[in-house]
Write the structure tokens for this entry.
Amino acid sequence: MEALLTAQSPVIVAGQGIHMAEAWEELRRLAELAQVPVMTTMNGKSTFPENHPLSLGAGGNSRPRTVTHFMEKADCVLGIGTSFTRSLFVTPVPPGKVMGQITIDERDLSKDYPISVGVMGDARAVLQQMIQLIQARIGPGGRQGANGVASEIRAVRELFLREWMPRLTSDEVPINPYRVVWELMRTVDRRSTVMTHDAGNPRDQLLPFYETIAPRTYLGWGKSTQLGTGLGLAMGAKLARPDWLSVNVMGDAAFGMVGMDFETAVRNQIPVLTVVLNNGRLGAYDRLLPVSSERYRLRFMPGNRYGQVAEALGGYTERVERPEEIQPALRRCVQEVGLGRAALLEVITREDPTLPKE
């Protein structure tokens, strides 16, 4: 706590442990008392409302500029409910930071980073104790409004969104995948929707721009690239919260791996919405497997009409090829899901390999 309060530019990194401990309110209270910005991990996304003035958003292989900006200038980084695992799919902690870690698993302490202060305990219980100590130290109102961190976050976020808005609102045909993310966020009820993604580009395009505003409304995963996992997660989420909408965003390659499992949703009356971003490509494999891509066209998947597959399996399907068609089609699919039918929306997209990382 002392390091957090005396730091010039502290950052909290909130992980999946906040969900496990149901410590969402305690995390928000701590951040507001100490006026500390909060970044979530990919698995921890939706532990902190991303429309909050102190939210930096989520960091993974891709990330909003707010994450990069504040992590670079941070002098103290406190991880709560996170293992601080090093991975290509995790935003790294730059060197030279004083680091603290609160975790329930002793194997996480100083596993991948040197930790100056480590605490073993349930995230909610530890946060409650920290809140009490801070209130005793600086008063029950904390530092609310005491510094300009919220203004700095807003300025960095506005600049970031201004640079990316041409993609998010693009009228390109084939459709830019970022436009699909933008339309999803404007269409679904984000307080009662569980959003998940598949590995690869859908994960990296959704994570920085789909803004979560309520706990457990996002199933972030993907420190590896097992294509197709998101469909099963969406079905599990629907079974756990049958009164919520459950959405899975996947690529055409992922559907090619597990598409027949859509029949599981139909047969067992698990009404989920699957959005397939179909660009006829296995993303990035021209760089990862250049010889196979050149000789055997490994990464090309032309002629696929996955909506017809899902329709044959008994689901409701639509296919859109123009950006203005996305939102009306999404609304019809959500309506069908509400009537108890599994739905698939196939969106014909262009390949956009550009990811926000800086």
